[in-house]
Amino acid sequence: MFNAVRDELMLDGNSRQNLATFCQTWVDEEIRDLMDLSIDKNMIDKDEYPQTAEIETRCVHMLADLWNSPTPETTLGCSTIGSSEAAMLGGLALKWQWRKKRAALGLSTDKPNLICGPVQICWHKFARYFDVELREIPLQGDRLIMSPEEVLKRVDENTIGVVPTLGVTFTCQYEPVKQVHDALDQLQKETGLDIPMHIDGASGGFLAPFCAPDLEWDFRLPRVKSINASGHKFGLAPLGTGWVIWREAADLPQELIFNVNYLGGDMPTFALNFSRPGGQIIAQYYNFLRLGREGYAKIHNACYSTAQYLAQEIEKLGPFEMIFDGDCEKGIPALAWKLKDNASTNGYTLYDLADRLRSRGWQVPAYSMPAEREDLVVQRILVRHGVSRDLGSLLIDDMKRALDYFEKHPVSHALSAKEAGGFNHG
User: CB-side exposure of 202: number of CA atoms within 13 Å?
Assistant: First the structure.
């Protein structure tokens, strides 16, 4: 039976050649050993496994310090099964705080809204599940992320918060957190509206502190009340690791915290999930200790270097124009490109190129952009730990071979997104 199951798993794609995923595909042997030691530990049972609970608390305070909380030793936060759950918890806290403030003034609380740019699907789920109007800023021309001006057009007294993304899924860029923050400051001076911010740092939360330390996006900005990040992306932890941290303890409403009598212990909990393994948290803590700030910076800067190398080499191929080139001050270690408007392609599209590369094992997704720029098709590469320059050089060679193939074999019927297998950002 083991061989039968193992043989089926061989049909999955090669994770090292998966340049679509944000998630880690490089796992050290020590991480595997720690995960094995923790395979039977239910981390929600803090009374039974007190040291695992202590390790989670240490990670929370480490992250609060990394993100410049004014009270890193006393603020609140928690681990989650991933950044999507963490984002929803941050959104719930915003909604509860807004509702309490409105109710105290005797005002209506039945039409909350949340403002964001092009977001990952978890925010659409949050809005639907928890009855919040999502005011997603549509793209326009060359503006492919939120802008302060577009945020201000949508803010009103029912806005529970603004959510900039530090590493937009579609183009990999950082949204202008500081500029949006300052625009909201000016709005408060003019109208009295005090709008908080939650930062979706799923990717950038573990990048900017190490590779762009002067970039102001975190708790240095007073309006930033909470941050979510994905430990299993650029936090270098195994799959199933997310984090949400609040600026100060007062920013997490007490009504959202449950005290559960579980297996003989009274335990505070704030989560959408309950039982889950403790190994991911232990592995995250191990990485914090082993790598430190210097180690994370070294690994991530190497990824940025590879991303910039790939951007330069792909532009040299001729028909491609970079949308994002892996600049560490402006986004994550990744690159995104489109076909030049005047490119001579012999009929192929980026969907055809993605399909051709897949025949060599590479997963390099092509997809259309969100609302009002659905006409724009882009292709993207994520450079994670383990995606070396050598591996990148092999990809460039295969891209050259693919373009040469299209030159010799004109495409009479270009693939659509559906025909190419599509790509799901969720």
Answer: 29
- In the chain, domain spans: 29-290, 296-408
Bridge-partner residues for 262, per DSSP? 265
Rounded to an integer, what distance in angstroms lies between the CA atom of residue 3 and that of residue 221?
54
Q: How far apart are CA 347 and CA 411, in angstroms?
A: 5
**Average pLDDT score over residue span 333-358:** 93
* pLDDT tens, residue by residue, 50-97: 899 999 999 999 999 999 999 999 999 999 999 999 999 999 999 999
**Alpha-carbon radius of gyration of the chain:** 22
Residues 126, 131, 164: CA angle, nearest 5 degrees: 45
Enter the tokens of residue 63. Answer: 């992250």
pLDDT, one tens digit per residue, over 91-145 is 999 999 999 999 999 999 999 999 999 999 999 999 999 999 999 999 999 999 9
Q: What's the confidence (pLDDT) of residue 48?
A: 85
Q: What phi and psi values does residue 165 have, to the nearest 5 degrees?
A: -110, 130
d(CA 126, CA 306): 35
- Tokens 């920013």 belong to residue: 251
Tell me the mean pLDDT in the region 267-286.
Answer: 89
For residue 282, pLDDT over 60 is answered with yes
CATH 3.40.640.10 fits 29-290, yes or no: yes
Rounded-to-integer distance, Cα 276 and Cα 269, Å: 13
Classified by CATH at the fold level, domain 296-408 comes out as Aspartate Aminotransferase, domain 1 (3.90.1150)
Q: State if pTM tops 0.70.
A: yes
Closest-CA residue to 348 (of 416, 281, 293): 416
Written as six digits, the tokens of 78 are 């928690």
| CA dist list (Å): 214 to 108, 328, 333 | 40, 11, 17
